[in-house]
Amino acid sequence: MKYSDFGVLLVVGALVGCASSGGPPIGTEEVIEAETALRNAEEAGAEERAPELYEEARIALNAARRASGDEARRRLLEARDYASAAEAMAKAERLRREANRVRREADDLDQQAERIRDEAGRPPQ
């Protein structure tokens, strides 16, 4: 799910408007930070590679939309943290896959070099 700038503004308006009780108002930057973290996780492939963490981030963000004051702030921080963890996990999985691919390519090259040495009748160096 992609979040548009308009969607971010709607969330900001709803959270700021609802934050009149239970603590200081929610700052726009807090909402944008959580939204950005979720978007970054999505772009990193977290929906596929870290679905549990990504879903927890989405749930927390939706809960923040329904909450006010300190509860909204707590849920925004939770959403940001889950999204950041999902992004990191997705990136780590992507790097593991890339490392495995490079290892396989290196193994293939080693085997090719060995065959060439055998065919040339030269000892390995």
Strand share of the residues?
Answer: under 5%
Which ranges are low-confidence, i.e. pLDDT below 50, for 5 or more consecutive residues?
none
Structural class: mainly alpha
Mean pLDDT: 85
Largest sheet: none
Q: Radius of gyration in whole Å, from Cα? A: 24 Å
User: What's the helical proportion of residues?
Assistant: over 70%
Number of strands: 0
Number of helices: 5
What labels describe this entry?
single chain; 125 residues; mainly alpha; 5 helices; rod-shaped
Draw up the topology in text:
Elements lengths: L4 H14 L9 H16 L2 H4 L1 H16 L2 H52 L5
What can you tell me about this protein's structure?
This protein is an all-alpha fold. It has a domain of 87 residues. The protein is built from 5 helices and no strands. Helix 2 packs parallel to helix 5 and helix 4 runs antiparallel to helix 5. The termini are far apart.
What is the structure about, briefly put?
By secondary structure, the protein is mostly helical. The protein has five helices and no strands.
